[in-house]
Structure formats: C-alpha cells, structure tokens
Specification:
Length: 392
C-alpha cells in the first residue's frame, strides 16, 4: 500500500461481541486483524510491539487499535506487550492469560480503568499506563510482588490503593499530574523506592519517607503542600524538587551527603536553613519567587555549589561569605532589594553568569560599580553575562 493511499478502516470489535470480551471466538480468530498486527502478534521472541509512531515521526503501519487485539491472548509466552498511542478504551479481564508478561505498556490511550485481573500477572515488572483517563487503580495490584516500575503520570486518579505497599520490589513510581489528595501512609514501607514522583497533584501533606533510604529522587513540586515531614534518613537522595508548593520552610534534611539539586522555587519560604552550606555535594539551589529576606552566611561554606537562583525575593544583602563558594558559576539575584554588590564576589574564580537587574542599587556606591565592571569583564570573557540596572 502506497504511503499516499488512505488507511484502512480502524479495527473494530468482532460483530456481536462487546469490546473487551474474552470469548473463544475472539481469541481464536485473527482474520479481522490488519496483516501487520497479525504478524507482530506472532513474534517468536515473545515481544509484541503494536506501538503507533509519534506525531510527525512517519506514517503508521496499521490503523490505531480501538479494541484490544484478542488473539494476543493465545500467545502465553509473550513477555513484552506494547500498545502505546492507540485508541483503546479498555483492557480485557482475560489479560490474566499472559502469565509470562514482564512489561506492559498501554500509555497514551483512552483507558478509564485497569482490570482487577491485572493482579494475576505475577511476573509483571513494568507497567506504563501514563497519559490515559484512569481514575483509580485496582486493589488487586498489590499482588504484583515483582513490579519494579509503575508509571501513571497524566491520569485522573484522586487516590491510590493502600495495597500498593505490598509491591515490595517497586523502585520507580511516577504519579505526576493526577488529582491525588493524599498518599496512603502504608507506602512508607516501600524500602526499595529509588525514583519517586508525586508532582502536579493536590497533596496538602505527605507521608514520612523514613524507610526510603535508597531513594535518589523525590519530586513533590506543583502541589498545595503546606508542611512536610522530616526527610532525615534519606541519605541517598540526589534530587529534591519542592517547587510551586506553599511551604514556608524547608523540611529537616539531616545528613544528605549525596544531595546535588534542591529546587524550592515559587513557594512561600521565608528563610533558608544554615545547614545547606554543610551539604557536601550540593550543586544547584533554586529558591526563586519566595519571600526570602536574607541569605544565610553559612552558605558560603559550600565548595560544590555551582548554581544559586534566588531571583524575585526580598533579599537586601549579599553576604561577603558567598565569595567563598569556589565552584559558583551562576548567581541569579534579579528583582530583590539589594542596595549594593560586595567586592567579595570578585573571589568567585569560576563565575560566568550574574544577574542583579531590577534591584535598587545605590548609584553612588563606588565599590558596587567597580565590582560589577570587573565581574562583567570576567563573565563576558567566558561567553557568559553580567546583568545590572542601567548605569552599572
């Protein structure tokens, strides 16, 4: 069939059988399937890939599936089933027949639910049902003891089943951009979690992640969280994303020897804790668009900090100690209440970008003028920038 030819009609359920029905007639016959679909279902390696291409990435090899291709269920040796970017509205209960399935990818469809029988896929290790219309997960998923990845971002869930706590192998969970109002406290027991994303929900509080000692990333941005529990004990954390919340103080961080990125921008912070300066691997600190009035001098003790973004706050002074941040390359202080820029910043040997625009700098302050002139020469030489109010 030439690329310019119109695609054949979309696959429909067999006549007389409701969509998702697992009748023997549907399972046994594949004459109604597009030839490409039928061929892929018979893949001898146990990998059935019925993914549609992304927009602009070439013409589809077959029409988007509107019903689950039931002949797949005869292939009980299938270990990987990918149905991404189709038009499926449901999965059949009989999917439990795929007893050897390890990877199930049904992302970017129109699913409203997942069948409870999915809990019978005891060998399942990865489930991606992101970008659907799913409102809840079945409690039967708690039987998936080998499940390592659960990717559910961009759905419509308001709650999670507490039974997920028995998915003891879980390493990655992504519930970004749902409508969750709480996270079951029982999930505290998932000790193998590594990458955790609950961003973009409606959470006001969060559980105590004391057992998440293996977690390297925790994303809670874009929630209505007011307070957070202590994060002490999360000694492997590398990324902590708390931006766009309503917290007025950071949680207790304790000893975090591996934390590299801390983002608490667009929140309601009124201060930064002095302990930030003692984090031995902190490289990026973003706390722009808050209510900060000061920078803790102890932050100058950081030997690893490369990017500091404190734009759009009410900070009045840059402490001289900040000049001791020997790795600092980017300093963003735009739209604060600074009246001066200290000469101590000239000690920043690696600085490349500085922004102090929209600050009420004192025009007659000779030290500020000379400091900015010298910093501009250094930054421009490194193909960076030094932005300041007019006249500086």
């Amino acid at each position: 069939q030439a690329p310019s030819d119109p695609l054949p009609a979309r696959l429909e359920p067999e006549s007389g059988a409701p969509m998702g029905c697992s009748s023997s007639r549907q399972v046994g016959a594949d004459s109604s399937l597009h030839p490409v679909v039928a061929e892929r279902i018979r893949d001898p390696k146990g990998v059935v890939d019925l993914t549609q291409p992304e927009d602009g990435r070439g013409a589809p090899a077959f029409p988007a599936l509107e019903a689950f291709p039931m002949p797949v269920l005869r292939q009980t040796a299938v270990t990987e089933l990918r149905l991404t970017r189709n038009d499926l509205t449901s999965l059949p209960d009989a999917i439990s027949a795929l007893v050897n399935l390890r990877i199930l990818d049904v992302a970017e469809n129109r699913l409203a639910t997942l069948p409870g029988s999915i809990g019978a896929l005891y060998k399942l290790e990865e489930l991606d049902a992101s970008e659907n219309e799913i409102t809840e997960l079945p409690s039967e998923m708690g039987t998936l003891r080998l499940l390592r990845r659960l990717i559910m971002y961009k759905n419509r869930m308001t709650q999670l089943p507490s039974e997920l706590c028995t998915c003891e192998a879980l390493e990655e969970v992504n519930f970004f951009n749902n409508k969750l109002i709480r996270v079951p406290p029982s999930l505290e027991r998932l000790e193998k979690l590594d990458n955790v994303n609950f961003g973009g929900n409606r959470l006001k509080t969060f559980l105590k992640p004391a057992a998440w000692k293996n977690a390297t990333r925790l994303a809670l941005m874009s929630n209505t969280i007011v307070t957070l529990p202590s994060f002490e004990g999360m000694t492997n954390l590398r990324q902590l994303q708390l931006g766009q919340t309503v917290i007025d103080e950071l949680p207790k961080l304790g000893h975090m020897p591996k934390l590299q990125l801390l983002d608490a921008s667009r929140s309601c912070l009124v201060s930064l804790p002095a302990e930030l300066g003692s984090l031995p691997d902190l490289r990026s600190l973003a706390a722009s668009d808050n209510k900060l009035v000061a920078i803790p001098p102890q932050l100058g003790a950081s030997k690893t900090l490369t990017t500091l973004n404190l734009a759009n706050n009410s900070i009045t002074v840059i402490p001289d100690e900040l000049g001791n941040c020997e790795s600092l390359k980017v300093l963003l202080m735009r739209k604060n209440k600074l009246s001066a820029v200290p000469g101590a910043l000239l000690r920043l040997g690696k600085i490349e970008r500085i922004d102090v625009e929209l600050n009420p700098l004192e025009f007659r302050d000779a030290e500020t003028k000379e400091t900015l002139r010298a910093l501009r020469a250094v930054c421009v030489d490194k193909k960076g920038f030094c932005k300041a109010p007019p006249g500086f």
